[in-house]
Amino acid sequence: MNVQFLNPFIEAAFAVLDAEVGVTAKRGQLSLQRSAATASEVTVLISMVGQVKGVVLYGLSEATALQIVAKILGQSFAEFDDLAQSGISEMGNVITGQAGQRLAEAGFESNISPPTMIVGKGTLISTLDFERLQVPLETELGTIQIHLALRESINGTVSHPLPIGGA
Amino acid sequence: MYKIMIVDDAQFMRVRLSKLLTGHGYEVVEAENGEQAVQTYRSIKPDAVLMDVTMPEKDGLEALAEIRGYDNQAKVVMLTALGQESMVLQAVQAGAKDYVVKPFDPDRVLRALQKALG
Ligand SMILES: [Mg+2]
C-alpha cells in the first residue's frame, strides 16, 4: 500500500461530507487491517483500475448511514431500505471519484467501478482477505472508516473496472 | 414542457434529481444504466439527458456515444463523480454539451440543462 494515496481520499471525504452532509470530519489513527469479514454494519466496496489499482472500502454503522442520507435528502428514514442504501453507495462513489480527480492531478489516472453494498457486520467476503490501511473519520453523526488497499501500477490502463463481488 | 431523462445507477440520485427537475417544471423519465438509457432515448426521445458515468451494464460515456450516434442533435449533460480532465475531454469529444462534477450544485445542474436546451 502506497501511503501517498491516502491523503487524496481523506481530502475528498472531507470535501464531500462538508458539501453533501454539512458536517466537519476529523481524521483518527491509522491502522493496518487484514480480515475477510466486514467490520462495520454497512460497507461500500469500490474497485479502482489504472495507474492506481486496488480496492477502497467505506464502513459505517447503520445509525450513522441513516443520519447521513436523511441529511442529504432532507427526509427521515425509518429503516435502511433500498433508497438509503443507494444513498450511502453513492456517497462512496462520489468520495472515490473526487479522490480519483486528486490522484489524476498527482499524475495517476484511474477509473472506478460502481459501488457494491454489503449490509451486515462479520459478512465474509473472500476478496477482502488482503492487508489494507484503515483510517477513521470522526463526525458528529458517527465514524466513517476508510480502508485502502491500493498500489501503483504505472502501466495500468484505465478501462472499465467491474464491481467487486459482495453478496 | 421539456422532458429530461435522468440516467444514474443510484436510485438515491434519481430521486434527488427528479425532485429538483420536477420542482422546476420539467417532466422526468429515468434510466438506471447506460443500456437502459440508450433504449429509453430511442423510445421516448427526451429533450435532454442528465448522464452519470460510473454505472453497471454500460457506462455513461458509452451510452453518450451511442445516443449521439443515433441522434447527432442529442443534448446530453454529464453529471458524474469523475472530475479528472481526461474524462471531461472524452465526454466533450463524444458530444456532451456540459460536464457537472458531483457533489453537484443544483443551480449548476439547472443552468447546464437550460443552456443545453437552448
Ligand atoms: Mg453511478
- Tell me the fraction of residues in β-strands of chain B, as a range: 15-25%
Largest sheet of chain A: 8 strands, antiparallel
Percent of residues in β-strands of chain A:
25-35%
CATH hierarchy: architecture of chain A: 3-Layer(aba) Sandwich
Helix/strand class of chain B: alpha/beta
Q: Averaged pLDDT of chain B, please?
A: 97
The CATH superfamily label of chain B reads Response regulator
How would you describe this protein?
The complex is a heterodimer of chains A (167) and B (118). Chain A has 167 residues and is of the alpha+beta class. In chain A, strands 1, 2, 3, 4, 5, 6, 7 and 8 form an eight-stranded antiparallel β-sheet that branches. The radius of gyration of chain A is 15 Å and the shape is globular. Chain A has a single domain (3-154), classed as CheC-like (Chemotaxis protein chec, 3-Layer(aba) Sandwich). In chain A, β7 (132-139) and β8 (142-152) form a beta hairpin. Chain A is built from three helices and eight strands, in the order αββββααββββ. The two termini of chain A are 26 Å apart. In chain A, α1 (6-21) packs across α3 and α2 (62-73) packs across α3. Chain B is an alpha/beta fold. Chain B has five helices and five strands; from the N terminus they run βαβαβαβαβα. Chain B has a five-stranded parallel β-sheet with strand order 2-1-3-4-5, with helices on both faces. In chain B, α4 (85-93) links the parallel β4 and β5. Chain B is globular and about 30 Å long. Chains A and B meet through α1, α2 and α3 of A and α1 of B. Bound molecules: magnesium ion. Magnesium ion is lined by residues 8-10, 52, 54-55 of chain B.
